[in-house]
């Protein structure tokens, strides 16, 4: 069972400047910058009351924790220490910038029993980082991940594909890069244009167009596939469906859906079936089977995969369940052939990063640059 993560959002707290895409108050739904010790204790008790039998962690998200004034960091972390001593929670995690994680910072965090650090990488392409006003380089991110892991922390990377200057090739290279650096888990947040951001100004001016939902799902599926192949968990795909994001006009464009992770997994299975079908000489009597606990992901939202396969010429009108299949497998067969594929081990996307001769966003349609993600 996954641990219960009890989040405390500190929107923009500690951030040295505002990134092009960021509106943490809207993303988190939190207006107060930093919780008090009393609020932390009360909130933890409320969460534990709803899930009393799960191992719990306290997490500080939404700002650059390690750039808060040191006294404020101490107050937040010390508020959690009694909960650790009483074994009400087991771990503390924080998120921060890659250029705010030197050896002295890591020693301080270890001394306050922080166990997990999430690094806001966003991209490993320096042009993308520059255009997004991140204020750090790809090398900073790689070094930070390596340093954090070497210091004994659990380390994760947060990626944000689809920003200005980004491409599919760059996004996939970013996944490979953070894995190579030692990231032990990944979050994928495809770009959305939030009102009240500099990115919204670019979008309204016609200078930027993010990948839409369909494009973003396809590209997140490829990123997820790379992580699965490397054995790296993807613990979140897409922004949490907070009340602020659901307000009219909050999201102007981009890849957002309240169940984005499910759409991405369904895309992965959709593409796996097409890959297996390439080797079939006939589709007569075609049948598709999956493990019982993967049925909803394989058939897709509102059974959309069945419709898409039929449109592609595959006569799959229902999906059988087979408890003998591994959790990552599906079986496609007809009267003459049988093929078992895996979302982990099957080479679903036969594409080379070096073959993607794309340098950025270009081209015009209706006066707006088009994302080269198709």
Automatic annotation (TrEMBL):
Keywords: 4Fe-4S, Iron, Iron-sulfur, Metal-binding, S-adenosyl-L-methionine. GO terms for biological process: tRNA wobble base 5-methoxycarbonylmethyl-2-thiouridinylation. Signal peptide: none annotated. GO terms for molecular function: 4 iron, 4 sulfur cluster binding; catalytic activity; metal ion binding. It comes from the Bacteria. InterPro entries: ELP3, Elp3/MiaA/NifB-like_rSAM, Radical_SAM_C, rSAM, rSAM_horseshoe, rSAM_sf. This is Radical SAM domain protein. It comes from Trichlorobacter lovleyi (strain ATCC BAA-1151 / DSM 17278 / SZ) (Geobacter lovleyi). The lineage of its organism: Bacteria, Pseudomonadati, Thermodesulfobacteriota, Desulfuromonadia, Geobacterales.
């Amino acid at each position: 069972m996954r641990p219960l993560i009890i989040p405390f959002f500190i929107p923009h707290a500690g951030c040295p400047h505002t990134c092009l895409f960021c509106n943490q108050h809207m993303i988190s739904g939190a207006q107060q910058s930093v919780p008090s010790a009393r609020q932390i204790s009360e909130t933890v008790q409320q969460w534990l009351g709803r899930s009393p039998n799960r191992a719990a962690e306290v997490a500080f998200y939404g700002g650059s924790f390690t750039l808060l004034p040191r006294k404020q960091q101490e107050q937040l972390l010390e508020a959690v220490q009694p909960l650790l001593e009483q074994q009400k929670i087991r771990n503390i995690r924080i998120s921060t910038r890659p250029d705010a994680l030197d050896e002295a910072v890591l020693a301080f965090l270890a001394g306050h029993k922080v166990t997990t650090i999430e690094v806001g990488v966003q991209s490993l392409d320096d042009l993308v980082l520059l255009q997004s006003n991140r204020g750090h380089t790809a090398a900073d991110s790689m070094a930070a991940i390596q340093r954090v892991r070497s210091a004994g922390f659990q380390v994760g990377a947060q990626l944000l594909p689809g920003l200005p200057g980004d491409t599919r090739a760059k996004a996939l290279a970013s996944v490979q890069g953070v894995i190579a650096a030692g990231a032990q888990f990944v979050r994928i947040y495809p770009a959305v244009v939030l009102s009240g951001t500099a990115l919204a100004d670019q979008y309204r001016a016609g200078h930027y167009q993010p990948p839409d939902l369909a494009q973003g799902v396809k590209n997140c599926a490829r990123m997820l596939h790379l992580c699965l192949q490397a054995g790296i968990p993807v613990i979140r795909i897409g922004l949490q469906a907070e009340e602020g994001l659901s307000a009219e006009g909050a999201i102007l464009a981009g890849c957002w859906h309240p169940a984005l992770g499910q759409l991405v997994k369904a895309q992965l299975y959709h593409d796996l079936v097409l890959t297996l079908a390439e080797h079939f000489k006939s589709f007569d009597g075609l049948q598709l089977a999956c493990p019982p606990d993967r049925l909803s992901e394989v058939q897709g939202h509102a059974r959309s995969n069945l419709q898409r396969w039929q449109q592609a010429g595959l006569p799959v009108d229902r999906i059988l369940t087979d408890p003998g299949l591994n959790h990552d497998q599906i079986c496609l067969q007809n009267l003459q052939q049988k093929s078992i594929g895996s979302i982990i081990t099957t080479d679903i996307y036969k594409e080379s990063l070096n073959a993607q001769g794309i340098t950025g966003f270009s081209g015009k349609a209706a006066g707006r640059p088009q994302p080269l993600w198709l």
